[in-house]
User: Fold this.
Amino acid sequence: MDNGRTFEFVWPLLLIGLGLLLYFLPSFIGRNKRDKVAIFMLNLLTGWSVIGWLAAFIWALTNDSVTAVVVQSPTPMQTGPALLCTCCGKYSLPGSKFCPSCGQPF
Assistant:
């Protein structure tokens, strides 16, 4: 093959490769995202339309939202000896102000 024939053969392959790279650009950008499979599928199936390609591209550029999970810690347990009610003789949690059985103040 001479140089003219080689160029005629390589030029279309380069254009096809560049076209595929541009077509799958949103998938390449979003490859490390949580929704990478969904971005790829949107890009693959609707990327031929300008709107589908733009939607996949914008989705690939957005940040992953982090859902804040608020964990409420239980009320801290008070340490110390249990309180003995002088009225009913039952024990109560340390720091209690009233007996849970009879209601007498400590």
Notes: Residues 3-61 form one domain. Helices lie at 3-23, 25-29, 36-46, 50-61. Residues 39 and 56 are 6 Å apart (CA to CA).
